[in-house]
C-alpha cells in the first residue's frame, strides 16, 4: 500500500511547491538553461519576439514571452535559496542534483588520500591500500559523469585518464591474491 501512496504523496508535495507539473503535462522543464549553449539569440517571427537556442547541429526556438516568464521564475527561485543556485551556476533542481553528485564524487576521490595516509601511519611505511584504488575509481567515475553533464572536456580528460591506472592496480591486486607488502615488512627470503 505504501508503494502506491508514496509516489502520489511525493508528487502532491512537489506540485504544491510548484516543482512538479499538473497531470498530463510534460515533466521536462520548457527551457534547460543548465545546458551549454553555442549562442542565444533574440529574434522576431511574425512580429513576435522569439528566443533561439543555438547548439552545434540544432536550433530550438521558444516563444519570447514564455522564455521571459521562465527566466523570471528561475530568478525568484535563485533568490529564494539565498543565491545558492547562482553560486553553483545552475538554474534548476536537476542542476542541484548533478552538482551534489559531482561533489560526492570529489569527496570520495579526496578521501583516498586520507585512507592512504592512515594506512601508511599504521604500517610506519608508505603503503597504498586496496581502498585507495577503489575510492580513486569510484570517485573519478562520478566526477567524469558530472563533467559529461557540464560538457567540460578538460575535466573529462583529466579524470578519465586515471581509470587505466586504477583498474590495472586493482587487477594486479585481484590476480596476485592481495596487496603487495611494503618493502622491509615481508617475511625473510
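-> sequence recovered:
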Amino acid at each position: 500500500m505504501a508503494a502506491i501512496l508514496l509516489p502520489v504523496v511525493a508528487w502532491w508535495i512537489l506540485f504544491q511547491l510548484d516543482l512538479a507539473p499538473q497531470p498530463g503535462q510534460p515533466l521536462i522543464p520548457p527551457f534547460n538553461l543548465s545546458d551549454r549553449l553555442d549562442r542565444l539569440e533574440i529574434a522576431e517571427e511574425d512580429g513576435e519576439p522569439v528566443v533561439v537556442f543555438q547548439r552545434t547541429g540544432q536550433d530550438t526556438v521558444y516563444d519570447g514571452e514564455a522564455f521571459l516568464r521562465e527566466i523570471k521564475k528561475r530568478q525568484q527561485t535563485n533568490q529564494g535559496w539565498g543565491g545558492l543556485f547562482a553560486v553553483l551556476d545552475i538554474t534548476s533542481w536537476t542542476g542541484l542534483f548533478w552538482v551534489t553528485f559531482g561533489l560526492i564524487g570529489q569527496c570520495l576521490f579526496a578521501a583516498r588520500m586520507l585512507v592512504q595516509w592512515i594506512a601508511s601511519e599504521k604500517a610506519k611505511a608508505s603503503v597504498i591500500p586496496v581502498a585507495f584504488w577503489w575510492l580513486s575509481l569510484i570517485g573519478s567515475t562520478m566526477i567524469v559523469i558530472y563533467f559529461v553533464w557540464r560538457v567540460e572536456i578538460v575535466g573529462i580528460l583529466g579524470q578519465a585518464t586515471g581509470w587505466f591506472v586504477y583498474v590495472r592496480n586493482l587487477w594486479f591486486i585481484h590476480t596476485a591474491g592481495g596487496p603487495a607488502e611494503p618493502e622491509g615488512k615481508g617475511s625473510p627470503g
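The chain has a mean pLDDT of 77.
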